[in-house]
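[audit] Reproducing an earlier prediction to check determinism. Same input, same settings, fresh worker. If the C-alpha cells differ from the archived copy the diff job will pick it up downstream; this log only records the rerun itself.
[audit] input (373 residues):
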Amino acid sequence: MIELKRIVVANKQTDFDTQHAALATVVKVEGSSYRSPGAKMFILDNGLWEGSVSGGCLEGDVLRQAREIMQSGKARIITYDTNDDNNHQLGVNLGCNGIIHIFVEPLNRNNPIIPVFEKVITQQKRTILIKKLDEFPTYSWTKMDGEILDSTFDHHELPGLKEIEEKIQNQTSGIVDMDGEQVFFEHFEPAIDLVVVGGGGDAQPVVSLANQLGWNVRLTDECAAHLFPKNFPQAQVIQCDRKYMGEKIQTTPFSAVVLMTHNLDYDRDALLQILEGDAPYIGIVGPKKRWEKMKAQLEDQGIALSPQDLDRIHAPVGLDIGADTREEIALAIIAEIKSYFSKRSGNPLKQRKDSIHHKDPSTGEVLKSSHVR
C-alpha cells in the first residue's frame, strides 16, 4: 500500500502541461522474480520514477521504453526473460530465472486509474481492479462482493467473467484471456491497521516503523501526558479510558493490536475490550511470566479465554531476533505482525523449500496472496 500512496502523491505533483508520465505494472511472472504481479512504477519523462517493478535491474530499460510509450500514447506489454544468460535487451546477466511481463501505459491528468488508487487507499476495503490490456486500456473497479463502485466499461458483459470471479476467490492477481482479449485483474487489500495501546517511549519506534511500511497507525492511552503529538506525528492519537476502548477503538480482520502500557492491570483490562472486536492479532509486550500472571488474574475473576482467543494473543509479542533496544524490539514486533498477515513463518529464507513467492502449482505463475487468514 505504501507504493500506491507514493504513486498517488507523485501523480498529484506532476505538471501534465509540461511533463509526460507513464505507469508500469507487473502483470505476470513465470518462474522467479524480485517483485510479484501488481508491483508498480510511476515514470516521468525527465527520468524520475516512484515505485519499482524489480530489484533495480529492469527499471532503466522500462524507463527507456516508457518514454517511447509516452510519445506514442499507446500502451503495450514489455517482456523480460531473465533466464537468458546473454540478455541483449539489458546487456547484463541477471540470473533470476524468470519471465516478467510488464504493462506500461501513458498517463494524463484525466486518466481514471489514479482516482481508483485514491479510493483503494482511503476507503480501506478489499477491492478488485479489472483492466483491459490493450493500446488504450479501460478499467472497472469493484468491491469483492461484486458491487461496482466505479466503471468505465460494463464488466458484467465481459466474456470469461466467471473465470475472473473464481480467481478472485483465491485472492490472486493475474491475466485472463477472454475471447482473444487480455484482461488483468488485481486484488487490493487494505493496509494493515495497527493499534498501539500505550504511549511510552518504546511505542515511538513501533509507530515510526509501521508508518514507513504504509500501515495505518492509531495510538491510544488514557493518560493525556503520554499522547504528546510531537512524539507520534505519524499516528492518529486517541485519548481513551480503557473501559471504553471497545467502543472507541474499532477493529477489523486487517487490524493488529499491540498492548504496551507496561501496566499489568491496564493491559489486562484493555485485552478484554480488544477481544470483543475483530482484530485477529493481539500482541502483549513483556516476559512470558507476566502473561501467565495476567491469565491467572483473569481466571480468578472467572474469565476463561477460549482456544480461539488464545490463538489471537501473541505474548510475548515479537519474533526471536535477540532484540534488546527499543528500536530492535520494534523491529521484532513489526516483523511478527507482517509474517502473521502474510501467512509466513518468519523463518530464514534459506530454510524455505518452496519459492519465496506464492505460485500456481500447475503453471508456476507467481500469485499475489491474501493478508487475511
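[audit] rerun output stored. Observation attached for the diff report: Residues 326-341 form the longest helix (16 residues).
[audit] end
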